[in-house]
Amino acid sequence: xxxxxxxxxxxSEMIFDVASQALKxxxxxAVIQIKNNSKDITEHPLTxxxxxxxxxxxxxxxxxxxxxxxAxxxxxAHSTATQCPYCGSRYVLADKQEDxxxxxxxxxxxxxxxxxxxxxxxxxxxxxxxxxxxxNMYQTDKVQGIYLPYWTFDAHAEADYTGRGGRHRTRTVQxxxxxxxxxxxxxxxxxxxxxxxFFDDILIPATNSLSLEQLEKIADFDTGQIxxxxxxxxxxxxxxxxxxxxxxxxxxxxxEMLERLESMARNEILSRYDEADSIHIQxxxxxxxxxxxxxxxxxxxxxxKDKVYQVLVNGQTGDITGKYPLSPAKIALICAAMAVIxxxxxxxxxx
Length: 351
Prior knowledge:
Blueprint: E1 5-6, E2 13-17, E3 22-25, E4 31-32, E5 44-45, E6 61-66, E7 72-76, E8 81-83, E9 90-93, E10 105-106, H1 113-125, E11 144-174, E12 180-205, H2 212-216, E13 227-228, E14 238-240, H3 246-270, E15 275-304, E16 307-314, E17 320-322, H4 328-350
Parallel strand pairs: 10-15, 11-14
Antiparallel strand pairs: 1-2, 2-3, 3-4, 5-15, 6-7, 6-9, 7-14, 8-9, 10-13, 11-12, 11-15, 15-16, 16-17
């Protein structure tokens, strides 16, 4: 969904600049501030008919489909082929063009490519089981900033819970040898309670291009920094269309809310007892709402010995996650060292 902006002073392209959080000319350095009105960030009532209106007439981009992993990305309308930010393969114009649902908000990128390079190199240095040559694999031109689609959900929750609370007790008994010993046991009690809680901005990924395991590791986004949507934020970046239906994401959000309510109930029980067990939650959710937002992620893929490895960086916080190859030589060295230690222990015991 990238839109091109041209500088009125020199005619050069303007793209979103992380440092100024504004559009900046690549030629003369002129800066244009981006309007951000929090009143424009809409929370939509979550009803059966809840669908954000599609503005097909405002679409100024193409849906591109990766030939390698199948990801569907929104890029500039004039693009015919480019590199996938997920797997590094080429992607081409999709046969089926999709209408774009205009996002309700966006978290702008807070770190730039230079900082991503520093984070990547630090991350590699801490992977001490990785092969040595891997430390030279970072390539700036292989890193792509992409806005990933997410749904956020709000809800007022009222929950009744039941469970068991256990108190640790001691008693004096005689063992089989006739000796008096102190025995610790748990005295269980039925408990019940009520929880009232407001869930704000439960984030659910609306993409199938990346695994949930990967996304969870960089998912610590601060939704308090969501800005009202403006295409200016996307200038210089790619963005992905949502590929997970609202209804499915809502079910995932409900599941997460129930897990959190169970954790709250457990903590309440543990505030009065030593143990908590057999917790059951009966919850009612009211005034549910949702919005569609774009969140910033840097993605890079590198090839090592004919295998592709992907690394993701949270474009707001700098959190990083990725996969990397293991060095057989280093693993063999560790195994040998452990074997030597075991042999020394055995020799010490024998002697």
